[in-house]
């Protein structure tokens, strides 16, 4: 099991602001992948949606469990999934992660053997959890050899839809977008400290931190409007 701890801050920005940030830090940060990549997440929750309500109610301590897969081309098939539990206290995030093959993930979802996933973490082992919603989006990420503890990501085309086994893993869904196409979700992730020149430039751009959640915001928009199939 992999484990790490970091700080996370989120901002909603424009395409123009994204380009300014990339240009400003071009001598320090580089693109992790030239064309970015896609993130596909399946969230689990209990029958009362307690995980979701923790966020809605603004609790400073909360957690969420999800399966996440990555791919670089829409034609790719996800070969492995990362089962993650993400715990948050204020801006400090702790994440534990286990990796499973695609076949065993699909087989256990098909059999509705959800404890196969939730039994792996103390926080979810004593309560019945089931798959609830899927999020799917494109991500550009900036990394740095000079500041290896800092990472900046830009998420676009964020979609959210209710889980069904027939939809799981499909990437050709072009509806249920959460954000205006002109808006980008920026996530600033770092351990130990954030260099002052980064925070100063964010202030210069008048960026304000937000509490956006792909799972919660997607649920609130589309719990009544399922995917049209």
What does this structure look like?
- By secondary structure, the protein is of the alpha+beta class.
- It has one domain: VTC, catalytic tunnel domain (mRNA Triphosphatase Cet1, Chain A).
- Helix content is 21%, strand content 40%.
- Strand 4 and strand 5 form a beta hairpin.
- The longest helix has 10 residues.
Provide keyphrases for this structure.
alpha+beta, 8-stranded antiparallel barrel, 40% strand, 229 residues, single chain, mRNA Triphosphatase Cet1, Chain A
Could you write a compact summary of the structure shown?
With 229 residues, this protein is an alpha+beta fold. Helices cover 21% and strands 40% of the residues. The protein has helices at residues 15-24, 50-56, 102-110, 115-118, 196-204, 214-222, and strands at 2-14, 30-31, 37-45, 61-71, 80-89, 92-101, 130-143, 150-162, 183-190, 209-210.
Model regions low in confidence, pLDDT < 50 over at least 5 residues: none
What percentage of the residues does DSSP assign to strands (E)?
35-45%
Number of helices: 6
**CATH level-two architecture:** Alpha-Beta Barrel
Arithmetic mean pLDDT: 91
Summarize the amount of helix as a percent range.
10-25%
The termini sit apart by: 37 Å
């Amino acid at each position: 099991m992999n484990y790490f701890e970091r700080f996370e801050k989120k901002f909603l920005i424009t395409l123009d602001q994204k380009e300014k940030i990339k240009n400003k830090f071009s001598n320090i940060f580089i693109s992790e992948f030239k064309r970015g990549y896609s993130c596909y997440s399946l969230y689990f929750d209990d029958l009362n949606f307690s995980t979701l309500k923790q966020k809605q109610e603004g609790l400073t301590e909360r957690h969420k469990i999800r399966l996440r897969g990555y791919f670089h081309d829409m034609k790719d098939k996800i070969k492995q999934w990362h089962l993650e539990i993400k715990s948050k206290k204020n801006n400090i995030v702790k994440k534990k992660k286990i990796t499973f093959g695609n076949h065993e993930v699909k087989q256990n979802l098909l059999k509705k053997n959800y404890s196969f996933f939730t039994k792996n973490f103390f926080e979810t082992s004593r309560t019945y959890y089931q798959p609830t919603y899927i999020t799917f989006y494109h991500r550009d990420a900036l990394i740095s050899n000079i500041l290896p503890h800092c990472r900046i990501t830009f998420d676009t085309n964020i979609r959210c839809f209710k889980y069904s086994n027939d939809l799981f893993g499909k990437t050709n869904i072009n509806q249920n977008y959460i954000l205006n196409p002109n808006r980008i979700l920026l996530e600033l992730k770092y351990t130990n400290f954030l260099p002052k020149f980064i925070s100063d430039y964010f202030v210069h751009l008048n960026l304000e931190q937000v509490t956006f959640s792909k799972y919660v915001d997607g649920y609130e928009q589309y719990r009544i409007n399922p995917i049209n199939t």
